[in-house]
Specification:
Elements (H helix, E strand, L loop, with lengths): L2 E6 L4 H13 L3 E7 L19 E5 L5 H11 L3 E4 L6 H6 L1 H23 L7 E7 L23 H20 L3 E6 L1 E3 L8 H10 L4 E4 L5 E6 H14 L5 E4 L4 E3 H16 L10 E4 L14 H7 L7 H13 L2 H7 L3 H10 L1
Parallel strand pairs: 1-2, 1-4, 2-3, 4-5, 5-6, 6-10, 7-9, 8-12
Antiparallel strand pairs: 9-11
Helix pairs in contact: 1-7, 2-4, 4-5, 6-8, 8-10
The structure holds nicotinamide-adenine-dinucleotide and thymidine-5'-diphosphate.
The site of thymidine-5'-diphosphate has 12 residues, from helix 6 and strand 8.
């Protein structure tokens, strides 16, 4: 069936993998990529599909309500997959308002525009909001986040995502807008901006720079390969129940310090260095304020209802990721020139 699908933030890390999957797998769909191209948005991520007949890029800001309303009036999208966001916790600590504008107001602008063009007939329409497990707050040593876990965000980033999730549900409950939400664990893989732990460590190991581990390194995250997240998004988009929430994860918890050591070993092998060389770069640095101790997703619902399971193990995914970074020097040097250096200085020195 032919559909016009707006994917927001598709020049970013996860969005680019989702857009590629949809453009290739569904030639009958027309995929529109709406992106402001912030520091995190990069059209290089979509070079291989940019000339596909069913793909179109639109540069624009979701915070600009009149632009968004006009765009929806003109294009009459059938569905929205909303990924555009400010996504880095450390930046949210420095500049929380930016996160309120994009993540909260930007989301409400999209909800309004979708409601206005669909209000006479909600059938075959869908507003899919892509969110994070960070809305649930922090776990202790035990337990997992389920779809029923109460929201308890701690960082300005997670508070803004929690707020946007609440607005999406409010539009469903109040106006009947057909929605679905997914909350995923930490992603890793190709095209990840090197401000996040895994690509930052790969970049620093390659360049013999210190590997900044916050606090004692005992914080735990649950990691999913980005292409598996895109596969899960495809399943939720097509088969998720109207109004429902799906947690996405692969039962893959790692303490940061163990993850960084594993990465060091893999990089030593790939770079032909003596094992143990990269580990010497590990440097414990000042902790992140309000640092959540542990995230871990219970993915039972999406396993059982939609048959989602990760396609790669963590070892396979990490090796694919390292190989990608080592063979995409130009991408890495483009995104780490200019403003990245300034950001790095301010964050780590
Ligand atoms: P990212 O920072 O790599 O990409 C965000 C994209 O949004 C960029 O292309 C950026 O240019 C665009 N954007 C930002 N502000 C915009 C605006 N005002 N208007 C239009 N476009 C704008 O983020 P990501 O890691 O790909 O995350 C995508 C989504 O998935 C986010 O909503 C995030 O909360 C969610 N998520 C991320 C993870 C993760 O581990 N990265 C995990 C779970 C959920
Ligand atoms: P990050 O990749 O920023 O994702 P999130 O904060 O959304 O989980 O961080 C992952 C974990 O790694 C988190 O516990 C913070 C930690 N971390 C470091 O120890 N050093 C770093 O330089 C960064 C960026 C993160």
């Amino acid at each position: 069936m032919s559909k016009k699908i707006l994917i927001t933030g598709a020049a970013g890390f996860i969005g680019s993998h989702v857009a590629r999957l949809f453009v290739i797998k569904y030639p009958d769909y027309k995929i529109y990529n709406l992106d402001k191209l912030t520091y995190a948005g990069n059209l290089e991520n979509l070079k291989d599909i940019e000339n596909s007949p069913n793909y179109q890029f639109i540069k624009g800001d979701i915070v600009d309500a009149s632009f968004i309303n006009n765009l929806f009036e003109t294009e009459r999208f059938d569905a929205v997959i909303h990924l555009a966001a400010e996504s880095h916790v450390d930046r949210s600590i420095t500049n929380p308002l930016e996160f309120v504008y994009t993540n909260v107001i930007g989301t409400v602008n999209l909800l309004n525009a979708a409601k206005n063009i669909w209000k006479d007939d909600f059938s075959n329409k869908r507003f899919y909001h892509v969110s994070t497990d960070e809305v649930y707050g922090a776990l202790g040593a035990e337990g997992l986040f389920t779809e029923d876990t109460s929201y308890d965000p701690h960082s300005p980033y997670s508070a803004s995502k929690a707020s946007s999730d609440h607005f999406v549900r409010a539009y469903h409950d109040t106006y009947g807008l057909p929605i679905v939400i997914s909350n995923c664990s930490n992603n890793y893989g190709p095209n990840h901006f090197p401000e996040k732990l895994i690509p930052l460590c790969i970049y620093n190991i390659k360049n013999n720079k210190p590997l900044p581990v916050y606090g004692d390194g005992k914080y735990t995250r649950d990691w999913l390969y980005v292409i598996d997240h895109a596969i899960a998004i495809d399943l939720v988009f097509h088969s998720g129940k109207n109004g429902d929430t799906y947690n996405i994860g692969g039962f893959n918890e790692w303490q940061n310090i163990d993850l960084v050591k594993t990465l060091c070993k893999l990089m030593d092998i790939k770079l032909g260095r003596e094992i143990g060389t990269s580990e010497k770069l590990i440097t414990f640095v000042k902790d992140r304020p309000g640092h959540d101790l542990r995230y871990a997703i219970d993915a039972t619902k999406i396993n059982k209802e939609l048959g989602f399971y990760p396609s790669v193990t963590f070892e396979q995914g990490l090796e694919k990721t390292v190989d990608w970074y080592l063979s995409n020097d130009e991408w890495l040097s483009n995104v780490t020139s200019g403003n990245y250096q300034k950001y790095y200085q301010e964050q780590y020195n």
